[in-house]
Automatic annotation (TrEMBL):
Transmembrane segments: 53-73, 94-113, 119-141, 153-175, 181-200, 212-232, 257-282, 317-339, 345-372, 384-404, 416-434
Name of the protein this chain belongs to: Major facilitator superfamily (MFS) profile domain-containing protein
Membrane topology: Multi-pass membrane protein
Membrane recorded as keyword: yes
């Protein structure tokens, strides 16, 4: 796994009826280019399928595979660096590398979204592909702490950001009623990448060394992004508009968006901790090293189903409703299983269930932004929300590392569960504001 999805053009999934169409008609943005007499943001104009639309979904999956999928394997590098190149550093210090990596990918949405709205996805995808591949190539020859920070934490991650946001936003322009499903299918690229990349790294390093392992990963990114660059496009023609600082402030002045941003911050502050520390926590609980190194892949394998089944249900039962259910499951499984348990079986069960629920949370979130936004603001508003997520993932792992250093793994696990619970409360308040208690499908 934007930032930007959509004064009423992406109303709640259950509201895609005559009432929605009237609201959408009133929300017409005159800056959007379209054939005479046709409003491309009208629900009736969304293809909802067809060869072109599903080809875009395929390209999106490729882009998300190499961006969010790569970020999903950060736990592998936390473990590897702590045992090899950076073994003289503490886990808290090393945690800044994956944290900065995730931060740079998410924070890029602030300006990537605006560029996407103004000029479309093409230049972003091309430059992003170059930076992502170049950063991984530079990481392959890095030996010092600052070199890993710059190559993997900044350059590669910034390129991933320029790939990730257009990949998500292009899909949104082709689907209205089936948006959560389409985004969920595209987001499986994240899960597949999160399974394949960790296994590749663990298998290749003993055979060809760290340097060539990173280069092989970079070549995989390049091949997939050739396909992504050929297939990704937006149905909504771009229209250049002047960049104003208030464009990035205005969403946070809206009550619904402010609640969504706060909920996203708390949720992702807790959500990424298992991905970062699952290997180290498992080893501390007695899980054999040979198995522990593949737990990130197990997490992402579980998320494959979480990124498809819940989004499919979200389009029918309500996006916020399904999101809340998956958020509750994430919170409960952390506090009730990961925190108190030990041993191999419990750890694997946790990875599969948490992978499922966290995958659903991550894949449905962009459609929540769409639900309370106008499609002409896809880039900016998704970017604004994910900039908040960026701060959360930046500080989350170092805080978790400090908690581990001071009080052990249980304190970090309790911290993760408490944050997920706090995010759940905020999203519940937003669900009520949108009419969830009235029986409305939200």
């Amino acid at each position: 796994m934007d930032d930007d999805l959509e004064k009423t053009a992406a109303l709640p999934a259950g509201d895609a009826d005559g009432e929605s169409e009237k609201k959408l008609e009133g929300a017409r943005d005159d800056n959007i280019a379209a054939p005479p007499g046709i409003n491309p943001m009208d629900p009736s104009q969304f293809p909802e399928g067809g060869l072109e639309a599903w080809t875009v979904v395929f390209g999106s999956a490729c882009g998300i595979y190499v961006s969010f999928g790569w970020i999903n394997c950060i736990g592998v590098f936390q473990d590897y660096y702590q045992s090899h190149q950076l073994k003289e550093y503490t886990s808290q210090e090393i945690a800044w590398i994956p944290s900065l990596e995730a931060f740079m990918m998410f924070i890029g949405g602030l300006w990537v979204g605006r560029v996407y709205d103004n000029y479309g996805p093409r230049v972003l995808l091309l430059v992003g592909t170059f930076l992502h591949v170049f950063g991984l190539m530079m990481a392959s020859i890095s030996h010092k702490y600052y070199q890993f920070l710059l190559s993997q934490g900044v350059c590669s991650a910034f390129g991933a950001s320029m790939i990730f946001y257009p990949s998500m936003s292009c899909v949104v322009t082709y689907f209205f009623r089936r948006r959560s499903l389409a985004l969920g299918i595209a987001a499986t690229g994240s899960s597949i990448g999160g399974v394949i990349f960790p296994v590749m790294v663990e298998k290749l390093i003993p055979q060809v060394g760290f340097g060539w392992t990173m280069r092989i990963c970079a070549f995989m990114v390049l091949v997939l992004m050739v396909m992504g660059n050929l297939t990704l496009k937006s149905r909504i023609p771009p229209m250049a508009k002047p960049v104003r600082a208030m464009d990035f402030v205005k969403p946070f002045l809206e009550g619904d968006f402010a609640l969504l941003a706060l909920g996203s911050f708390l949720t992702f502050l807790g959500l990424f901790l298992p991905f970062t520390f699952i290997i180290l926590a498992a080893q501390e609980r007695g899980v054999p090293d040979g198995l522990a190194k593949y737990l990130v892949a197990v997490l992402n394998a579980g998320s494959t189903f979480g990124r498809t089944i819940p989004p499919f249900l979200a389009d029918r039962l309500g996006r916020f409703t399904v999101f809340l259910a998956m958020g509750l499951l994430s919170c409960v499984i952390v506090l009730a299983l990961w925190l108190p348990s030990s041993g191999t079986a419990a750890t694997i069960v946790f990875c599969l269930v948490f992978g499922f629920s966290s995958g659903a949370v991550a894949s449905i979130l962009p459609s929540l932004v769409a639900t309370i936004s106008h499609i002409s603001q896809i880039g900016v508003r998704t970017g604004c929300n994910f900039s908040v997520v960026a701060v959360a993932v930046l500080i989350g792992s170092p805080i978790g590392g400090q908690l581990i250093q001071n009080d052990g793994y249980k304190s970090m696990q309790g911290f993760s569960g408490a944050l997920l619970g706090g995010g759940l409360i905020v999203f519940t308040v937003l669900w009520v504001r949108l009419g969830g208690l009235t029986g409305k499908r939200v």
